Amino acid sequence: MSTEFTPIFVFILLAIFGIASAMVVLSHFLGPRRFTSVKQMPYESGMDPIGDARQRFDVRYYLIAIAFLLFDVELLYLYPWAVAQWSHSGHPAAVAAPDLPLTAADHLAQAGSGPAPFGPVGIPPAFRDLVFGQVLVFVFVLVAAYAYAWRKGVFEWR
Question: Phi, psi (5° rounding) for residue 31?
């Protein structure tokens, strides 16, 4: 690393630590010091802490949390599939319609550097219908789980 920037870095560090320490010292001397019972009371999300901290939660809270995680995380599996579905360099539509945008592997192959360094990416055209059917089954299971949870009243907060 070049030493010509060292004074600048030292200046920035001194400025950050100097301002931070000045704020701490000034707040200690200039800040109010009225200790009341309200200020000493614990604060929890805008609610007054009443009762024991180890109270039981309604099971519906956990059902909503688990349902959110289920549908949120499971739907993340659709993004890689959507990218891989049409990113294979042997895309049949690219042969029929050459004006379609090319993938990175196609650009590398046309530039004369040979095949893509990691081989063709994406789902091979022969397997696209099979994988699409599997994704439809996956989405159907998610919809069925959502309908079951809705019918059981998981999403109703009473």
Answer: -75, 155
Task: Write out the H or E segment, with its range, that includes residue 27.
Answer: helix 6-30
At 10, the amino acid letter reads: V
Mean pLDDT, residues 36-58 taken together: 73
Phi-psi region of 117 (alpha: psi -120 to 50; beta: other; left: phi over 0): alpha
What's the pLDDT at 19? 95
- What is the Cα gyration radius of the chain? 30
pLDDT for res 16: 96
Answer whether residue 95 shows pLDDT above 50.
no
Contacting residues for 123 by C-beta, under 8 A, at least 6 apart:
84, 85, 88, 131
Distance CA(73)–CA(118), nearest Å, equals 28
Give the rounded distance of the alpha carbon of 153 from its chain centre: 28
Region 80-92: mean pLDDT is: 67
Beta bridge partners of 44: 47
